[in-house]
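Sanity check

After download, print the first record. It should look like this:
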Amino acid sequence: MKNSITFTFLPILLLCDNSQAIEISQHLSTTEAPTPKVRVEPKYPVNAAKNGREGWATFSFIIEKDGSVSNVITKETSGSDDITLAAKKAVMQWQYDPALENGEPIQQCANSVMLNFRMHKQAGESGVTRRFRHLYSKTQAAITAKDYAQAKELLGRFNKIKKMHLSENNFLQLLSAQYANEIGDPALELSHLNKTAFPIEAGNNQQLISTLKQKLLLQIKLNHLKAAYYTFERLEKLAADEPYLADYKVLLERIDEFIRSDKDLVISADIRQDEYWHYALVRNEFTLTNITGKLTKMDIRCANKRHLYSIENNNTWKIPDTWQQCYVYVFGENNATFNLVEHPFKA
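Expected structure tokens:
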């Protein structure tokens, strides 16, 4: 049985610069992006290949001044530890011609890549084990019966399955999203939908389209507006002729109007098991308020700057207009909660 591994890069260019913020009118720098020299292809784990098990993993990594890769962080995976480990080992061996700033080598701090492990399967092959199917059925029955305590306990048992098929991970994340919907937790529902990964197939993308529609509505509801724009772009490519896209487009136009308005944009946040919470900014001034629990630090990463900050309740940050495509990463203890309030643009 043949297999294949593909790389999908998310080209966000962020520099490791922790200097003081500079005036908006000052020229920041002239930057050249790193270029790959060596990309070692991961070895498909023998056990995974033998069992026809597919999977994926997403990583963030730093490209050092000498072109080596460091600080590889596992962001999301399909649930197979052996596939994740094989992918991470490969990324750690990659080599680049480093990024240059005004002709001098610099670090590149936030490079992201997804590695997909795929098998060329025969028609009718199943990617769901008997153990998974049994646990899935019990959990589905508990949710249907509205026995949410039992459903939560059963969902926790899936953590013991360390080598999960790609299809199993998708089933699990959709089931977990259904549970989150039932208990009225839209943030948890969205986090599980974000962990699905359906292959794009000609004429057979209904599950992917359905999931993207769910994500779009949740992203709008939770004020994750930049993510909503990206999801809408994916829907446009997959379902360009669908009439509901016109309604979504009108909705996004109203969101544009709100972003340009003089009203605050409030995002509720909580840190669960990932030790951090992240958000893509749509404005350039924000405040963290109503903090409960411990927040340890905040990492602001933009197209040409990166800054680390300590956090105090009601602190406000103003980002220069020249810093493009900014993302906020807030680190803290599990169950810490807070609000991020984006303030209106100032004339």
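If your output differs, re-run the checksum step. Summary of this record's structure: Residues 271 and 328 are 13 Å apart (CA to CA).
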